[in-house]
Amino acid sequence: MLGKTAGGLFWMFRYLERSENTARLIDAGHRIALTKSSSGSNEWTSILATSGARTAFDAKYDAHHGPDVIDFLLRDRDNPSSVLSVITAARDNARMVRTALTREVWEAVNECYLVMKDLLARKIPDRDLPHVLGKIRQRSAFVRGALHGTMLRNDIYDFARIGTFIERADNTARILDVKYYVLLPSAHFVGSSLDNVQWETILRSVSAESAYRHTYGPDIGPSEIAEFLILDGRLPRSLAFCASKIGDNLGYLKQQYGQHLPCHDTAEAVCTRMRASTIQMVFDGGLHEFLQDFLRFNGMLGQQIEQDYRFYG
Amino acid sequence: MGEQYFFDEMMGRGDDGPRGPYQDFGAWFDAENPSRLRKKAREAEDFFRLTGITFNVYGREEANERLIPFDIVPRIISAREWAKLERGIEQRVRAINAFLHDIYHRQEIIRAGRVPADMIARNEAFLPKMIGVSPPGGVYTHIVGTDLVRTGEDEFYVLEDNARTPSGVSYMLENRETMLQMFPELFSANRVRPVSDYPQNLRRSLTDCIPPACTGRPVVGVLTPGIHNSAYYEHAFLADQMGGELVEGHDLRVVDGRVAMRTTRGYRPIDVLYRRVDDDFLDPLNFNPDSLLGVPGILDVYRAGGITIANAPGTGIADDKAIYSYMPEIVEFYTGEPAILKNVPTWRCNEADALAYVLDNLSELVVKEVHGSGGYGMLVGPAASKKDIADFRDKLIAKPDNYIAQPTLSLSTVPIFTKAGLAPRHVDLRPFVLVSPRKIHITPGGLTRVALKKGSLVVNSSQGGGTKDTWVLED
Asked: How do residues A272-298 score in pLDDT, each as one tens digit?
């Protein structure tokens, strides 16, 4: 496979994953704004931080008002991570790697782009927001479904999956890191409604609110949330799950190509650390420090994969 | 100009009902409900949009991805008509390959005085670096798209021999796919010759010309200028359908005397490169030094037998519009027979008498740039305003070498489906020809382009033309 094609697949799926994650973030923020208008502006600040768009946003706006943030995250072409920007980028990458995709996958991503371009052509009124956010997640799910249902399990598939999980791991770690202080045991006031809302938001932004209840029961506790999102290998958006998937897919590449490369060692080190950790160890070493380490290694791993598999030269 | 007569391929001259090849279609159409057909026509558009067959129009930022309009009425050619076209095209393509070999070797046609030496030596499309080079398999033009127009029951003319990088074959294939999905019943009633094996035939005819350096299963690549090129969809489509790699210049470099592509496992050689970039951009070391689209040194690898480039560099000399006017002589010189397909009479504006005639008759002629394509930079006299003609006159006088002129042909019409029912529109035809050392293969049919505007003679998609599925019926 061409190095460029591997890179195109990796980024196509990173971007698709990002579109979905941004939609979830907006959904969670919007819900907080509906329930607690006083802390609304604060919440949008942390959402901008999570999506990495704060600097770009502040260059354009003076205050973090909900409607402006939503518009910036959904449709603004000046924001390279807006849903419209990343879906366009995903589709451009798909065009570039067209020969590596099945017709089903190509059509799903092309239609995703056509539908979104249409839906996001105008500012989204409040009442339409849930519908639009739902569509973004649905369209991204269609592409994933086509990928699972029609693609050969070979290097093409592996690069697509690796892109997905690098992005997802990055996203979950950022969500946790921006809010790490509400998860610290010292900040835990039982029954505080503010904390409850914050915890709920974290779960919602990784679509895990119902999974959490099935696993831990009706009461939400910060260290359980941290354990669930960081270490639980069953939750498809947890750091441990993403790390192990990246390890698997890199392992398949190693096998198929018969080549052991530096990225394999990094991925292995990340997985090992995840497996060896308990949530108590994470808190003892510092939650923020743990997440910062994770983000750094995850980013490094992405760059190594890029280099080892010659995406750019 | 008085009322001009146009031959309609469905209705012929009169009111005796549809001509032979269109009889079954005509009966089907009359029995159809127009509102169902309208719905189908809309479905076709959705289908094209979804599959992403778009066409980039240069110089338009906003709508830079556009669909080429598709018309649901097929263009139908009988077996007898096709047999004659096929013989004519094959003869012409053989002659073109023989001409190219001759021009880059002994130049006997010049010595024989049939083509003036100037026409070659002073031609931009002539590549001195190809002198004495024999391409693998002896094939220069692996892929040709011969543009034909019809003016009567039995009159066909060759308008252009596209011997460089003809495009449009993906539309031929997708148009047929679309028709099969929308109107399967039409195909059980009419015996239409299939076109779907084109990609396999393309691969076969390319790999019939592997370079001496190739060992093992040949690796085929399609070289594209990238996703912003107007025909990018087609490049990806063909690479995919052939099971080849779609590469850009920056994926390639010369490694150990071969042209190699950067894969996830290092550099791997390519044996046959179907390039969709012009000669000029192919090799910045040998041609245009500013090109970012090509591969530095590829021409040297080519000359040393390390890669096959299809079409061969330098083939443009054969489809140049000034050379075109010599095609009847060229065909006769190399095949020993008169040309089966007619040429359109052509005035070469670099000749003083011809230029004078053209300047006197601009309002009745079509004037084209010698190296132009895509309908850009041409004048259609009868359709042009006084000002257009005056402006064009200045350009022509300033650079007569750059132009040829032809009479306005009475292009045949085929109906399109409009709100008001069937309405005749002008068409041309581009059959696709594959050349290998074993044989010349012509896909039955080709791409029919249709001018959607009433009365318009310009069928180019960049100028608002559409396409039709093209049927060649079985005997």
From this structure: 999 999 999 999 999 999 999 999 999
A3 in Cβ contact with A309 (< 8 Å): yes
The shortest C-alpha distance from B270 to chain A (Å) reads: 12
Helices (H), B116-246: 117-121, 169-182, 184-189, 198-207, 232-242
Token pair in block for residue B331: 């065909």
Question: A200 CB contacts (<8 Å, ≥6 apart)?
Answer: A209, A220
Q: Does the structure show a pLDDT above 70 at A266?
A: yes
Using an 8 Å CB-CB cutoff, list chain B residues near A310.
Answer: 262-264, 266
- B17 token code pair: 């009902």
Lowest mean per-residue pLDDT among A29-38, B176-185, B271-280, B430-439: A29-38
For A155, the closest chain B residue by CA position comes to B264
Helices (H) and strands (E) in chain A, counts: 16, 0
Answer whether B265 sits within 8 Å of A257, measured CB to CB. yes
The CA distance from A29 to A198, in Å, is 10
Please, what is the end-to-end C-alpha distance for chain B in angstroms?
A: 41
**C-alpha–C-alpha distance, residues B398 and B411, integer Å:** 30
Say what percent of chain A tops pLDDT 70. 95
Specify the residue for token string 């592409």. A143
Q: How far, in whole angstroms, is CA A175 from its chain's centroid?
A: 9
pLDDT tens across B409-440, in order?
889 999 999 988 999 999 999 999 999 999 99
Is the Cβ pair B50, A313 closer than 8 Å?
no
Residues of A in contact with B263 (CB under 8 A): 1-3, 310
Cβ atoms of B161 and B318 closer than 8 Å: yes
Per the prediction, chain A carries an average pLDDT of 92
Nearest 5°: CA angle at B166, between B165 and B172?
140
Tell me chain B's radius of gyration from C-alpha atoms: 22
CB B270 within 8 A of CB B221: yes
Put simply, whether A292 touches B (Cβ < 8 Å) is no
Nearest to A2 among B50, B237, B245 (CB): B245
Per-position b or e across B302-330, b if 16+ CB within 10 A of its CB = bbebbbbbbbbbbbbbbbbbbbbbbbebb
3-class DSSP string for A29-57: HHHHHHHCCCCHHHHHHHHHHHCCCHHHH
Chain A neighbors of B52, CB-CB under 8 A: 95, 106-107, 110
Tell me which chain A residue has its CA closest to the CA of residue B219: A1
Residue A190: predicted pLDDT: 52
Q: Which two tokens stand for residue A129?
A: 């927001």
Cβ of residue B240 closer than 8 Å to a chain A Cβ: yes
- The runs of H, that is alpha helices, within B104-230 are 108-111, 117-121, 169-182, 184-189, 198-207
Q: Provide the whole-model pTM.
A: 0.89
Neighboring chain B residues of A107 at a CB cutoff of 8 Å: 50-52
Handedness of CA B86, B88, B90, B92 (dihedral sign): negative
ipTM of the complex: 0.84
Residue with the two structure tokens 């999956």: A161
- Are B251 and A106 in contact (CB < 8 Å)? no
Q: Which of B66, B264, B274 to mutate: most A Cβ within 10 Å?
A: B264
**Neighbour count for residue B372 (Cβ, 10 Å):** 14
* Residues A103/A14, Cβ–Cβ less than 8 Å: no
Residue ranges of E strands in chain A? none
* Alpha carbon A87 to chain centroid, angstroms: 14
Q: Is A151 helix (H, G, I), strand (E, B) or coil?
A: coil
Angle of the A239-257 helix axis to the A287-308 helix axis, nearest 10: 20
